[in-house]
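Our preliminary data section would be incomplete without showing what the modeling component actually yields. Below, a chain of 108 amino acids is followed by its predicted structure, encoded as tokens that our downstream tools consume directly.
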Amino acid sequence: MVRGMGNMGNMQGMMQKMQKMQKDMEKEQTAIQNTEFTATSVNELVKVKVSGKKEILEIELAPALVDPDDIEMLQDLVLATVNEALNQVDQTTETRMGKFTQGLNLPF
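Predicted structure:
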């Protein structure tokens, strides 16, 4: 028996675990990308739907919101709601993908 062969088995097992983790991460990332996230302004005048790829899919504006004399308020409300929807994507990605790196002492 050659000395040091026991470590090869450990290395092979570790590589298999890493490959499985990579496949699981890819599967989770695909699931996130296929998820739709919806944010609604506090007063429910603006509703924004985005994909997990951070693409805006839909923006709904309540008719009461459209005031030609106050376009700035409309712009601010749409911007805030879009940012909230994108924040939901980031939080979900961090939560769902973070489980793969939890406990690993990675330098990044």
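Strands lie at 36-40, 46-51, 56-61. The helical segments are 5-33, 71-101. Preliminary results of this kind motivate Aim 1 of the renewal.
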